[in-house]
Amino acid sequence: MDSTSTAGLVVAAVVVVVAFVVTVVLAQAVARARAESVRLRDELAALTECIERLAETDRIRREAPLVQPDTVVALPDEYVITDAGNGRRIGDIPLSRRTMALTMGEPLVKVAAFSSGVGRALREETRAHIGYQVRREMKQRRRQRRHVRRRDP
Hints:
Elements: H1 3-63, H2 95-122, H3 124-151
């Protein structure tokens, strides 16, 4: 055999090996893609089922009556924790007042709590205290940096 035929055989062998490696890599990639596709289909099916359940729940809620007079809790004129109702029944309080209390009660409490917190945060003494704390931390960090610089020349 001459050197050109040997070189040709070597090149052909290398091409065959490279083709085999590429084929194996591509086969693995296709297998991974198929597995991912199956996983995504399963996940999509689960999400679709969840959306359908949520839509059904939403439909049931929309069809349900908004106010059921027998289940509404009566609110006294004054809010006292120890008040046992004083013999009042649910029907003693007008429906409009009950509806107003149910719809506005929680948001009003949230607004009151938020505005109280904002007012407290904006007070001069609170801002001064926060400024004091920040200055103190900055001084402490400067001291630590100086200490580290002195120790590690």
